[in-house]
Specification:
Layout: E1 13-15, E2 24-34, E3 39-47, E4 54-64, E5 76-96, E6 98-100, E7 107-111, E8 116-121, E9 126-131, E10 135-139, E11 151-157, E12 160-165, E13 171-177, E14 181-184, E15 187-206, E16 218-224, E17 234-242, E18 250-259, E19 266-275, E20 293-296, E21 302-312, E22 326-332, E23 335-342, E24 370-371, E25 375-378, E26 388-394, E27 408-418, E28 427-434, E29 454-459, E30 465-473, E31 478-487, E32 492-496, E33 507-516, E34 528-533, E35 538-540, E36 543-548, E37 564-570, E38 575-580, E39 587-592, E40 597-605, E41 623-628, E42 633-637, E43 651-659, E44 670-672, E45 676-678, E46 685-689, E47 698-705, E48 710-717, E49 723-727, E50 734-741, E51 745-753
Parallel strand pairs: 35-43, 44-51
Antiparallel strand pairs: 1-2, 2-18, 3-17, 4-16, 4-18, 5-15, 5-17, 6-10, 7-11, 7-14, 8-9, 10-11, 12-13, 15-24, 19-27, 20-26, 21-25, 21-27, 22-23, 22-26, 28-29, 29-32, 30-31, 30-33, 33-34, 36-39, 36-41, 37-38, 37-40, 40-43, 41-42, 45-46, 46-49, 47-48, 47-50, 50-51
Length: 755
Amino acid sequence: MKYTLPILLFLFVQISSLAKNGDTTIVPVFDKYLFTWNGSQIRNANFTTQTKTYSKILMRYKLTCPNPACGEWDYTTNIYLRDKLGVLDSSLAEALSFDVNGVKVETFYFTNQPRFKTFYNSTARRTDSALVEPSTVRYYRNTNTPFVPTDSVVVYQGNFTNYYYSQFGGLRDSVKIGYDSMLTVETTQRFKTFEKFREIEIGRVITPYGFWFAPGREFYWDIDVTDYAPLFNGNVDIRAFYDGWSQGSLFSLDFIYIEGTPFRTTKTVDVIYSGNPTYGDPANPPENVLIPYKFGIQQENHAYLRVLNTGHGFGGTENAAEFSDKTHSILVKAQERYTHRMWNDDCGQNPVYPQAGTWYYNRSGWCPGQDVKFKDFALHPFYGTDDSISVQYKLQPYTNANLSSRASYIIQNQLIQTTPPIFAKNVEVTAIVQPTTDFQFSRINPICAGSQPKIKVKNYGSETVTSMQIEYGTASNKRTENWTGTLSYLEETTIEFPTVDLGTTSGEFTATVRLVNGSNDEYPDNNEKKTSFTLPSVYYGKVALALQTDDVPNTIFNGDMNGIRYQVVTDLGSVLLDKNGFADNSIVRDTFSLQPGCYYFVIYDEGFADGLIPIFQGSVRGAFSLRDQTGTMFYSALSSGSNFKASFGDREIIPFTIGTSTGIVDNTFEKVKGLFISPNPSSTTVSVSWNGLTLKEKATVVVRNIQGQTVFTTSVNLTDAPNIDIDISKFSNGTYYVSVVTESIELYDEFVVSK
């Protein structure tokens, strides 16, 4: 039977998609709140003490693009849980005689009847109007409870001017709108009682450069907050902070409870340090605040230092701390026991792409459009016989020679004490990496039916795992493999399997851990994971590549250093073709003759890792496209327009299948540079001729731009006329490609439009 958590302010919503072997329940907290400026929003939820146990609690952080787009910049957002301490305190606060929509207003003019406000409608080119939104005025009339509203009324704003416009938006007239009543706020200083609390950061997400994203586009991240389960108890305030200085995105936050047995129980959570210390200032070293933290030992408990840190600021020495690769230290009992490299080296493969900024640059602990991963360091192995120990987080020594460009870290260090793991054998299949339609792995999917599947598994048991028997595949095609290795408690690894037939269409892939160290897993509820998958589309004949390289200025790199490289790879990983060394701002055309089968076209940027769209002012943007012999364009990476996919980061992987078709005979198909185009360059008309051809065939004449888009097409008979004139007066400046295609030959050449 479904169990619904009792709440005061929110309804729990049942879902089944995340529940594998136990019911799943959602607590909604924020629902598409629009952050427009730097600040916080607080919502209260009631996590009433549960009579059931939960194997996992996930916090789903979702961003939805409003109209006209998502927020433009990469801003830091933090989610805090406010843990009430059961202690009352008070402070002087300003008590108001009234507020409007919960906000202090010095003077408020209002009416009791609805009012309309005019505006210029640029689409209809006329003066238009909209109903003024109602306002809620709350009164505070009881001096004994000055912060508790006594009554409220819904009214409409008055005392404003309506303007009337001409067809072209010019001001034509204005009318003053009156009001019925006026309120002037009165304030007094009174002591306000509150319950003391501490804030614990339970998640951090950096927003993407969202200027290119269309309204309605959504992204979400699931953050495991199971270790904070004891704090989700009763009425709890959740604070979301947004550090942006312009409009962001619509923000939603849900807590997802999955019923089952937790692999351990949290005893205590303490914040060791939370702040934003300056990095590299000799007069204000971070050691002044990142001091050793001493805590008492309970030998039966495990203890971990949880690190949730990100580096920010650039322009100083080494562009610290955002773009500076630093390795910090964790000291236990004043001895260095761990190192922590503060660096994300895979930003160029971010699934939230392409973004409208430097999203592909690697950074100190984060990437734009990703959640920040916390890192846990075990402290209990160093208990010894002591009754207390100290732990300290130390930053790598560094001096900033330009203190006007501040370098800093946003630091949240926590001490989490838990029970030992409940089970000896407890392996979870945490993710299916390939094949899947999971958005988080979209940069490396879909895969060919003959490629090797990959999954992630994590050991939540006390026993070190040295062998596993794992079954994987589809409902109709499954196989079992034995894995051997070493997987300690809380370690995660990726396993690549031999190929299994995935069929010819989309389907469902399942991975199941059957045995752990030769016997059954003690907690089988997390041994299996399922995911949907698709297979690459089918195309026919030879594949043609059209590539325009970008132009990375020589002031950045010495010489032609666009770094573009491309490969054609088989489904089993064999490289059939590997080409690089292309000049800046050059045109590359290539044709791949491939046997029927599945392949990957992989294009790399081994230079600045920005794909084909440099950020430097005045630089040339590149593009590329792929089409098959039938003329079907099956991939187009543009540098403008609607997709901007030429901004692919450090690489783009494009899977495709070459099918067998009786309509195309590969061994008779020729591609010949046999056209004559004049004048070239031209601004108005070009004449495309094929003098000398005697083929009595119908042909298709196609003109494509550098992005691979068809801008002109027509059918001709090669023997009817030796040429065709094409009007290019409306073409933009640039290079264009002409193809005259028959069943047995393709003639091609290129021309330039210059006006």
